[in-house]
Structure formats: C-alpha cells, structure tokens
Amino acid sequence: xxxxxxxxxxxxxxxxxxxxxxxxxxxxxxxxxxxxxxxxxxxxxxxxxxxxxxxxxxxxxxxxxxxxxxxxxxxxxxxxxxxxxxxxxxxxxxxxxxxxxxxxxxxxxxxxxxxxxxxxxxxxxxxxxxxxxxxxxxxxxxxxxxxxxxxxxxxxxxxxxxxxxxxxxxxxxxxxxxxxxxxxxxxxxxxxxxxxxxxxxxxxxxxxxxxxxxxxxxxxxxxxxxxxxxxxxxxxxxxxxxxxxxxxxxxxxxxxxxxxxxxxxxxxxxxxxxxxxxxxxxxxxxxxxxxxxxxxxxxxxxxxxxxxxxxxxxxxxxxxxxxxxxxxxxxxxxxxxxxxxxxxxxxxxxxxxxxxxxxxxxxxxxxxxxxxxxxxxxxxxxxxxxxxxxxxxxxxxxxxxxxxxxxxxxxxxxxxxxxxxxxxxxxxxxxxxxxxxxxxxxxxxxxxxxxxxxxxxxxxxxxxxxxxxxxxxxxxxxxxxxxxxxxxxxxxxxxxxxxxxxxxxxxxxxxxxxxxxxxxxxxxxxxxxxxxxxxxxxxxxxxxxxxxxxxxxxxxxxxxxxxxxxxxxxxxxxxxxxx
Length: 579
Known about the structure:
Blueprint: H1 29-38, E1 51-53, E2 56-58, H2 70-96, H3 102-122, E3 127-128, E4 135-136, H4 139-148, H5 151-157, H6 161-167, H7 172-175, H8 185-197, H9 203-231, E5 247-248, E6 251-252, H10 261-276, H11 289-318, H12 322-340, H13 344-359, H14 373-388, H15 399-408, E7 410-414, E8 419-421, E9 429-441, E10 456-458, E11 463-464, H16 466-471, E12 478-491, H17 492-499, H18 503-514, H19 519-526, H20 529-551, H21 554-562
Helix pairs in contact: 2-8, 2-9, 3-5, 8-9, 9-10, 9-11, 12-13, 14-15, 18-20, 20-21
C-alpha cells in the first residue's frame, strides 16, 4: 500500500536493531570513554551520525546511549558502588571531620570525578516516555529532562566541599552543603527495586535486607548528628554534652576528642539505636537544650520509621505487595513453560510482556472496568482520536465515523522482535500505529510488486492489516516490531457495526485503499464482503431516496442526502432521483 511509510517520521526515533550486542566486538573502557569524547560509536551502545531506514535518510542525534545495554549497566553498577560509599561517608564526614585527612581527601576527589563523568553520560542516555513507554533518543529532550530533574543537585554534590570549607576560613555553614550528596542514596533504592523483580534472588530475603539497610542508615545518620551536636559547643562546655558527661563504668569521656575514632562512632551509634528503639538504659541521655530538641524530633521520626518497618514486615507475611504478586505470577509461568517445553523464543516473549504489564499497570484497561460505558467512550475518544484521524486510510472520513472508530479501538503494546502478523495468515482486525516502529518483511526477500521493496518501515500514523482485513486474503507480508510499539486494534465485527451507520465513509476508505493499485487488486477489493455490504447499503439508500423524490418529501430527501446518499446513484432498476 502507498502509505505504508509514514511521512511524519519523528527525528527522535531510531532503529532498535542498531543497539543489538555485537558479540564479536567487545569494546574496552578506554574505547568507551574515547568514543564519548571523539563522537564515535563503540560496539553497539552508541550510534553516531545519520542513517537511513527504507532508503530514506533521517536526522539523528550525534550520539546517545541505550539504557539497557551492557556497557551502560556496567557503568551504573560502578557508580552504585560510589553512591553507597558517598551515602555512608557523607554523614560521617559532617559529624566527625572538620577537614579530611590526605588519604580520605584524595579518595573523596576520585569519587567526585566519577560522579562528574556520570553527569556528562546522563546527557546522552535515552529514557522511556512515561505515557507511551517508548524510548526517547532526541538529545535535546534528554538534556532538558535531566536539567529539570537532578542536574543541579548532582552538580552541587560533585563540588569539593571540604576544600571549599578550608578555603572559606572554616565557616561552619559551608559544611551543611555536604548533605546535598545524600541524594545519591536514590541510586541505592533503585538498585533494591531491581533486585525485588529479579526471580533469581529470594524476594523475602531482598525485602528484609532492604528494611535493615533503611534502619541502619537512619541510625547511622542520627549517630553522626548526635556527635556533631557535641562538637559545636565551646571547648569549655564540652563536659555538658551527652558524650562529654558520659561515664561507662570507670571510663570517662571528658576529653572525647582524643578518643579513637572507631570508639567515638560506636558510642554514638549505640546512643542512636537505643534511642530509636526507645529502650534507653539511662546511661546515655541528652544534657543540653539542643540535644533535647533533636532527641524529641528524632523519637518522633522513629515512630514513623517503626510503623514503616512493621508495615512492610506485615506485608511480607500476608503477601499483599504488587511486586510479590508479579513474582508469583512469573514463577508460575516459568513452571508452565518448562513443563510444556515452549522454547526459549516464546518464553522470552511471555516474560517480556509480563514485565511490560507490570511496569504499565497504572494504565491497564482493567482500571476502567467499573467506570460507566459513556465515560469510557469519552476516554477512548480523547486518547485515540488524534491518532486515527491522521491515518491516511481514513483521509476524508467524517468526524462521526472517526469518533466511532476511536471508541471501538483498544490498545496493545508489543516488544521489539515480536511478530504481529505473519505472511500468509488471514487477519480479522487492522492496526494503527500510535508510537514505535515496525518493519514489513516478505518471505524469501521477494518483491510484492515493482514499486515496493522489502523490508519497509512504518511509524506513527501508519496502518497495516487492512488488505487482508477487507479482502479476506492472506497477509502479503510479515510485520515485525523494531521498536517498542503502542498499537490500536479494530476488529472486523466492530467495524461492520460502524458501517451500518457510516457506510458512505466505508466507500471513502475503499477509494483510499485502491488508490494507485493495479486492476487485479481493485477487482479483488470490490468483490470483498465489505465492499458488497457497502454496495448493498448504497443501493438501499438510493431506493429510499427515489421513494422520497417520487413522494415529493423534501424533508426526507434532505435527511437522506445528509446521511451520505448520492443523488446520482441508481437503484436496483437503474433509476436515479433525477430520472
């Protein structure tokens, strides 16, 4: 069909096949970062320059990084290690150090350089659109998204605050900027979210470890703040602090700054834990007003933290979490696939679709089941009509017909590599592309006719399956997903129901479909059941129009013409209203 290639190609979209791992070309880290600097491609993670699809050149970003590929995942795990270190060390540096030792200062600089490199990398990492769930490769959109989200916080966190503190004359307010680095703890939470979905790791174990990490990190941070409060009073008053007045047996902490760092930290952590658990034994307690205020705030926070920990433990016992339901369903499917030897290809398709359903559960059509049909129709019309009215197949159709198609359509998502329709199969529905990219292939590499070459690509506002849909003939080509696709499906029964009221629009669709086609295809289309149904409806309307003309009923005549009746159309006896 003439309109299989979408003329409205978005510059931000690109062929996912270009990201397939090249097993024979394994780039090194040196090549990876050299490519980022020199604007070159490494292996298959970064695509450079311009390319073409279906023989047509399209503008592409200079280079970008696919978020699911090997080298970027290695890099994220490398940054994760530094994020864990930074999240733990930042409270420790704030509470226990006023000027880092040389060895720790050099380690801190290395970590900040790693995060600076990560900031640069993030400007080229494609992301998934929350609505369409497709990958966005447009470099401007990637940059704007990152600038609006975490760029400023990440950049401030990479500044050498210890050096700035020393250069500023050791002003205490400068050290508070260290807390910006705690935003890196989000990387750790994202890591645990991925672990929870990993079927290779026990879910209960993962959740318990996560809850323990949350509890220990909160008490670790509080311990560092407790010690910090004791060091901000004048030296003459340090005996009137919780640690300066502490006596454990015969041991006094009067000169606590001279005590070993490890012992000071353990003492602070002990005070933090027993306070959080509200089982304080009385030997450690707040002494001055500032410490009392912080303990009150800390205990109030601990009540919320305790409720969170207990609530999550209860959810683990009753198995009510969304992630656990997903894991249970995935485990059952894996057992079923192994028992029936479905093969690796089908198994991967099933797993991929289940993960997609989990990620997009917030937009699942099941959510709308309890909403009245009239409101569901309005929602479908709002979501799908902008795509349907731009499809070349429906060019010239009435707005009422477009609205009915939008109401009857339902959406589905297909992962890269999936075959939607196969050559030689007869389909009873046709498809409209909302987002994504597909490729049309013909078995054996043969040509369908002299004007079409395979494979061909199709993107937004494209449609396929209509030839088999209308003519009841085998599908002339195979349609395979190249990039994650969001498609609208319209089944034949719903389409025929719409034609009962809008058969004149059906004639427009047939004319759009046969435009530019050879006579054999036109004859085949004209003999299809859809064409015969439209012909019959037109003949019936022509007969009714003749009756209205014969009776001189102007009102009926105007109504029939308004409904799409053609005054030049003849009835079964070859008569028209003019006759």
